[in-house]
Amino acid sequence: xxxxxxxxxxxxxxxxxxxxxxxxxxxxxxxxxxxxxxxxxxxxxxxxxxxxxxxxxxxxxxxxxxxxxxxxxxxxxxxxxxxxxxxxxxxxxxxxxxxxxxxxxx
Amino acid sequence: xxxxxxxxxxxxxxxxxxxxxxxxxxxxxxxxxxxxxxxxxxxxxxxxxxxxxxxxxxxxxxxxxxxxxxxxxxxxxxxxxxxxxxxxxxxxxxxxxxxxxxxxxxxxxxxxxxxxxxxxx
Lengths: 106, 121
Known about the structure:
The structure holds 2 protein chains of 2 kinds.
Chain A: E1 4-7, E2 10-12, E3 18-25, E4 33-38, E5 45-49, E6 53-54, E7 62-67, E8 70-76, E9 85-90, E10 97-98, E11 102-105
Parallel strand pairs in A: 2-11
Antiparallel strand pairs in A: 1-3, 3-8, 4-5, 4-9, 5-6, 7-8, 9-10, 9-11
Chain B: E1 3-8, E2 11-12, E3 18-25, E4 33-40, E5 44-51, E6 57-59, E7 67-72, E8 77-82, E9 91-100, E10 106-111, E11 115-119
Parallel strand pairs in B: 2-11
Antiparallel strand pairs in B: 1-3, 3-8, 4-5, 4-9, 5-6, 7-8, 9-10, 9-11
């Protein structure tokens, strides 16, 4: 299986900050990376797919980049509703695997 | 707007069978694959498998021996059964629509609300 690591595992930020979360794959996965946001007790929500394509309805302050093994999610101008846990996922090959998550708090 | 609603028993004893069902409200059922994903303290988010409207299922090889996915197209529902549960199966279980883009990328959206499953004697 393809393993995904994320860094940092947690971070603290303030409203208005810009933050970047990284995701590294154990082998090349082209651009088959999705990013999700999850708040406690709720299901993950899709933010970005194909490494950099913004999902419908997702604010433009979210952006993604990267290819092959290294990917990043950037949130520019944090809003109060952005404090959550973020996960990357690879869909290059089955079984589809997720990163361990990055928890962001105020 | 497609919505997924899931239900099933949340409290089980070891060795029992977990059974969850997800209903699809709105949108096409036959165009997509339908997945189950779980989130456990020990393994985080884990894709369990997918099933299409014909009942063809594909499983995560690390879980396949105890898992069964099925579908009832007439009701726009799909189900997950996990045999012989243990405490390691405790966690949140989600259903999700799995779609493939032109690129082709696979994405999971929307998700069901989640079911908390606890395995305890």
